[in-house]
Amino acid sequence: MKKFQLLFAAIIALALMASCGNAGKDKAANNKKAKTITGAGATFPYPFYNKIFKSYTKEQGILVTYGAIGSGGGVRSITDKIVDFGASDAFLNDKKLASMPAEVLHVPTCLGAVVAAYNLPGKPELKFTPELMEGVFMGKITNWNDAKIAEVNPGVTLPDMEITVVYRSDGSGTTFIFSDYMSKISKEWEEKVGKGKALKWPVGIGAKGNPGVAGTISQTEGAIGYIGSEYAFSMGIQMAQIKNQAGNYILPSTESISAAAKGEMPADTRVSLTNTDAADGYPLSSFTWLVIYKEQNYNDRSLDQATQTIKLIDWVVSADAQKETTKVHYAPLPDAAVEKAKAVLGKVTYNGKAIKL
Amino acid sequence: MNSEKIFRYLLVGSGVLMVLIAVGIVATLFVGSIPSFKEFGFGFLYSADWDPSEGRENYGALPFIIGTLLTSILALIITFPFAFSISLFLGEYFKDGVLPSFLRSVVDLLAGIPSVVYGLWGFYTLKPLVAELGLNAQGFGIFTSSVILAIMIIPYASSLGAEVISMVPGSLKEAAYSLGATRYEVVRNVIVPNAGSGIFAGYILALGRAIGETMAVTMLIGNSNEIPTGIFDLGNTMASLIANQFGEAEGLKLTALIEIGLILFVITGIVNYLGKLIMKKLSA
């Protein structure tokens, strides 16, 4: 009798598992019409994607869903082939590219930046040089009345107040962009801290997400931290001007962020814009990318599914969608970048043949 | 098949399913942490270095194990006098009436408040207070998190205690009173020895809750991945670290986080087991 009961339970469990498995297979039958396009990844461009995917769904009658699960999750999802496209704030490096199951392509969709926000009594407008950034975030400059800060900011009264560095405790593309910049301007940073989506911080307090960092800064006098531009712009947070490579102090804005992307761009669009040499470019700017497979016939995807996916991404880089960027506080792709993006999309194939849109 | 049998199969089925799920979770954590274990071995448990930067990845769990144990045990110490008083009040002194039932509802309500709300309150009220008292510079840290945890676990620590205290046989108490014992003496010599294991069970439950708490801790602990130097220093806990870093983790870091999850699971298991052992000793 006991054996019988166990057997019965096992059969129920197996039946449950089998039915789940079958449901997945049915969906992927080969020449079916595409009903939904699924993407997942970066949280940073989510407000932009959310807005344009909604209007695309309305106009084209095909449901586009996007899960803002983080860039790492986006790359994992595309690696596991469970989404039509992944999204990431950091492009895949050569090592990561080589480890993907098939060749993937990067399509830039818009630009954002990282701003340095601070909280000081009297709300003075501050300028930062790369040397100051290094000093403050490495914990070498510990008080706001330090002579080095005063030297760059003549005429500003700086209080005798301890500097509290605030950083992102969660893994984040924002941290990646920030540390990518810091590694370029500071040898010491590169050696001791390095770059990544999360870091081993020399000083400071960790807070979760842009709202967490912004909240902690606004609650703490003498605090300084870095925040995603889309969040900082929409909340009207006070931010510092930063000296770029050309020697100009640049306030982050959608114009100065777009300007950072004016330089040369490789054909695969994988380029870091931090510490840009553009004279009017903001030095902590970055593209954000969609990541897709070059060969779209994987996991029994239908031709229509592939075509619809590429059509959507082609529309994202079109003028129609790009004009929405500034409404949600992102910077649009410069024309040269749009051209490169379209060229990348031209390389996509289904069964080795180019996809007709 | 008669209904008796169907019912029985259903019960057995759901029982087996529970076991399968629990075993499945352990197996997933175990398999997921193999790469990390291969890389770091047992050193993972006592290494204090958590460096996720590209090209120099090195992971150790010690700061988070210490952070977790420190916050939750401190929370239990802070919560003890309050929870015990509430248990006594509701279980012995005022069992019925408007005020006790109101108090009971409030305590139960504490258990129902989402932890992110505790976090917000801590962030905007408790943290500035801690900073103002001069306990540390910005108000974040182990101590602040422990205070929030202490408030969160009061219902878990007190309800079970109140229940057990109210179940102490009246005849025992009456016997003590008839011998001329005062109320305090009854509490000390009759109620506590009788209800001890039940009260203790409540604290184990509460400790388990504190160990696993994530959101409120993340918002207040300062998320510094170093071993805290004292209770007013910044720190981080295992649950908070996983919640923070999991979204963007991949490769070695991902498996290190899963191994931390496994350690958390094991620690919770050990705490529960020790709790049961002590309870057995107490009730024997």
TrEMBL record, chain A:
Naturally occurring in which organism (per UniProt): Marinifilum caeruleilacunae
Functional description taken from the UniProt entry: Part of the ABC transporter complex PstSACB involved in phosphate import.
Entry-linked InterPro entries: ABC_phos-bd_PstS (IPR005673), PBP_domain (IPR024370), Phosphate-bind_PstS (IPR050962)
Family: Belongs to the PstS family.
Domain PBP intervals: 28-319
PROSITE patterns named among the record's database cross-references: PROKAR_LIPOPROTEIN
Pfam assignment, any one: PBP_like_2
Organism taxonomic ancestry: Bacteria, Pseudomonadati, Bacteroidota, Bacteroidia, Marinilabiliales
Quaternary state and interactors: The complex is composed of two ATP-binding proteins (PstB), two transmembrane proteins (PstC and PstA) and a solute-binding protein (PstS).
Keyword Transport: yes
Keywords from the UniProt entry: Phosphate transport, Signal, Transport
UniProt-recorded name of the protein: Phosphate-binding protein
Signal peptide segment: 1-23
TrEMBL record, chain B:
Compartments, record wording: Cell membrane
Membrane topology category: Multi-pass membrane protein
Listed PROSITE patterns: ABC_TM1
Top-level taxon of origin: Bacteria
UniProt keyword Transport, yes or no: yes
UniProt keyword annotations, A-Z: Cell membrane, Membrane, Phosphate transport, Transmembrane, Transmembrane helix, Transport
Main subcellular localisation: membrane
UniProt entry tagged with the keyword Membrane: yes
UniProt-listed SUPFAM superfamilies: MetI-like
Transmembrane regions listed in the UniProt entry: 7-31, 61-90, 102-121, 141-165, 186-206, 254-274
Span of domain ABC transmembrane type-1: 65-275
Family membership noted in the UniProt record: Belongs to the binding-protein-dependent transport system permease family. CysTW subfamily.
NCBIfam families: phosphate_pstC
Protein task: Part of the binding-protein-dependent transport system for phosphate; probably responsible for the translocation of the substrate across the membrane.
UniProt-recorded name of the protein: Phosphate transport system permease protein
Underlying gene: pstC
